[in-house]
Structures are given as structure tokens and as C-alpha cells.
Amino acid sequence: MPEPVTLRFASTLDVSREEAWRWITSVRGIATELRPLMGMSVPPGVTSLADLAFVPEQRLFRSRIMLFGLLPVDFSDLTLLELKENEGFVEQSPMGSMRLWRHERRIGAVPGDTGRCTVTDLLSFEPRLARGLSTWAVKQLFTHRHAVLRRELGGA
Fold first, then answer.
1. 131-153 vs 27-34: helix crossing angle, rounded to 10
2. What end-to-end distance do the CA atoms of the chain give, in Å?
3. In what order do the strands lie in the sheet with 38-40?
4. Please, which residues bridge with residue 90 across strands?
5. 3-state SS of the chain: helix, strand, coil percent to 5?
6. Most buried residue among 17, 109, 134, 136 by CB atoms closer than 10 A?
7. What is the enclosing helix (H) or strand (E) of 27?
8. What mean pLDDT is predicted for residues 113-119?
9. What are the domain boundaries of the chain?
10. Is pLDDT at 151 greater than 90 in this prediction?
11. CA torsion, points 30, 52, 20, 71, in degrees to nearest 10?
12. How far apart are CA 136 and CA 128, in angstroms?
């Protein structure tokens, strides 16, 4: 079996770690980053990860993944291994399209500047099919997500 694909994306943002945390854990923030390429369903009434009872390695809920926010193409049994306020999370969710999906999202400090932070996504995944196409699609999605992060929260 081939090694997992590993990708890294990072942005420096013009917001504090606390503001970045509120964004990356909010349904609004996640939906904004994914639009218009993808959409993910969430249970009614959930506006943030803070609304859910976090137990490491236990599924929070099943999300339908929709191409362009309309066409169901996959599912994710959203499962967090770690959730640290103002620092980040590690998600390792069973998915229909992936043998492995691990998404680590970290918020880092900018030395000497409490008004700015970095957001870094480290992905490791093993597609079930079409490795090249899947890798390209994930690269496009996370390049888009970071462009949206910088547009919405300011930064480079």
C-alpha cells in the first residue's frame, strides 16, 4: 500500500489566536472557507464545535459532503482526536472516499505580535480511488480555504 499523501498549508493572519479559534471552530467560518467548492452538513442548532460534547476518538456526527454545496459526493464521520482551545485540533474522520483522512489545524503565535497569528493545516490522507485526482482536488480545496482565510481575517 502506498504511503499517505501529506500536504501542508499555512497563512499568517491579522487576528489574535482567540479570534482565529472562533473562526476555525465555527460552522460559519468552515462553510465560508469551503464555499463555493464544497459544503458540509451539520446537525440542526450546531453553530460551533463548542456546541458539541467532545470525547477524543468518538464520532461527533456524520456530515454529508456536497460538491458545490448541492450534490452529495461523500460522507465524513467527524471525529476529533484532540481539541485545544486557541491552539487547534486534530481530526481523523472515517470517510467514504478515503482509507485515511487526518487533518491537523494549528494556530500559532507570531513572535512579538499578539494581534497576529498563523493557521497551519497539515493533511495526511489515502484515497480509495484516483489518487492523483484526489490529491489535486484536496490541494485545490485547501489552497482556496487559505485564500478565504486571508481574505476574511486579513493576512498574507
1. 120
2. 37
3. 5-13, 113-127, 98-110, 88-92, 71-84, 59-67, 38-40
4. 82, 104
5. 25, 45, 25
6. 17
7. helix 27-34
8. 93
9. 5-153
10. yes
11. 0
12. 14
Question: Using CA atoms, how far apart are residues 4 and 41, in angstroms rounded to an integer?
Answer: 26
pLDDT at position 83 over 80: yes
How far is it, in rounded angstroms, from Cα 88 to Cα 121?
A: 10
| Bridge partners, 72 (sequence order) | 66
Mean pLDDT calculated for residue range 19-35: 97
pTM above 0.70, yes or no: yes
Q: Does domain 5-153 sit in CATH 3.30.530.20?
A: yes
**151: helix, strand or coil:** helix
Alpha-carbon distance of 64 to 1, in angstroms, equals 27
